[in-house]
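Researcher: Predict the fold of Citrate transporter.
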Amino acid sequence: MNKKRYFLPSFLVFMFMFILSSVPVLAAEATKQPANPQGFMAVLTVIPLVVILALLFKKVDMLVAGLVGGVMAMLIGGITLAQANDFFLKAIPSMLTITVPIINSAVAMAVFKSGGYTSALTLVRRAIKGKVEYFAAFIVILQAAATYMSGIGGGSAMVIAPLAFAAMGAIPELIAAMAIAAAVSFTTSPASLESGVVSKLSNVPVAQYVDSMRIYWIGFVVLAIILAFYGAKKRNAIFTGEENEEVRNMTDSELFKNTIPVIFLLFAVIFGPFVNKAVGMPILSPLVYTIVTVALIFICTKFNLSQSVNAMVDGSNYILVKLFSVGIFLAFINIIGETGAFTAIVGVAKLAPAALVVPATVLAGFLVGVPAGAYVGSVLTLVLPVAVTLGFTPMQLGFVAMGVGLGSQMSFVNITMQALSSGFQTPIIDVVKGNSKWVGGCVALLLIISFIF
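Model: C-alpha cells for Citrate transporter follow.
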C-alpha cells in the first residue's frame, strides 16, 4: 500500500519534470545560473534542501524525497534534463568507487558468519562478567582509533558495528557515540582526505593541522566514550543471546583460536597505515588483509575454503545495494548544489559580526553537512575557501571541518551512517533521529569552543 501511495506522486512529479525541463527550461540553458545566488534567489535555492529534509523526517522514501527536491532545483536553477542526466550518470559510479568500505564490509561479514565475533564476545562476556557498559566504551575506543589511523570512518564502522550489535543490540547512545567518534576522527586524522583538503586550501602542513586539533579530537572522543558507557548503563544492557551448547563447551583457547581472524582484521584496519608507513610498502593493504583474513577463517574456524570465500562475497551485497541507492540520491543533491544552494548557506557566515564569524562558519558547515554529507571532503572544498579568505587559523579551520563532519553524522547519504545502519540492522532514519540529540549537543559545544578560541 505504501508503495502504491508513493508511486503515483513520484510518477506525476517525474512527468512534470520532464515536460517543464524539456520545453520552457531549455530556454534557460544559455543563461547559466550564478554560482553565488543573491537575495531572494539565494533563499529560493535552499528550499529544495528544506523540502527533502522534511520529507525524509516524515519517513518518505529517500529516493522519492530526492526526486522531489531535484525537480524543484531544476525548475529554480534552469537545469535541463541533459544536465540532470549527467549528474545522474556521474553520481552512481562515484559512490561505487568507495572500495575500502565495500571490502571491509565483505570481509567483516565473512568473519561474522564464521563465528569469529561470537567467540570474541563469549571471551569478553566471561572476562567482564556482565559489565556491558565497559564493552560499550571499548567499542567507541576501537571506532575512534580505527578511523583516526585509517582516515576512513565508514570502513572502520563496517568492521566494528556488527561486533557491537552482536554484543548488545542497537543501543541509540552507542550508535551516536560511534558516529561522533568517527566524525571528529576523520576530520582531524593525519591519514584522511579531509585533513588533506584543509592542508591544501590553507597552505598549512597536515602535521601542523593535526597537532593543532589533537586535544579537541581527544576531548570529543572522551565525551563519546562517556556517552556509550552512559547509554549501556542507563538501559541496563546485557549481552544479547545465550551461549549455545557448542560455544558453552568450548575452552577459552578454542574460542581464542576462532577469534584470531577478528583480531587480525581489526589490527589491519587500525594499525595498517602505520605499519605500511614504517616498512615503506603496503604490507597491510586491503588486498593483503582480505586474503589473509579469508585464509585465517579457513585455518581457524570450521569454514572450509569455499565457505570462507562465499561468505566474503555475500557480505558485499548489502553495502553495494545501499551505495547504489545513495548514488541516485546524491545525483539529486548535486543538482541542488548546481543552483548555488550550498554557497548561499555558507555565504550567510560572512554577514555575522566579527566575534561570531568563526561560530557562524562552523554552523554553516554543519548545515551543509547534513544534506550533503556523502563526501565530507567535497563539502569542505565548498565551505573552507570562505574561511580561508576570512583569515582563519588552522585550529579554526579544524573547527569548521569538525562541524561538517558532525553534520554528516545526521546525513542519509553518509557512508559511516550507512555502515552504522547496516551493522546495527536499524533503519537509517532511526539512526539519524537517535543521533540528532547527541550530535546537536556536540555541535553546540563546538560552537562555544570556536567562540572562545
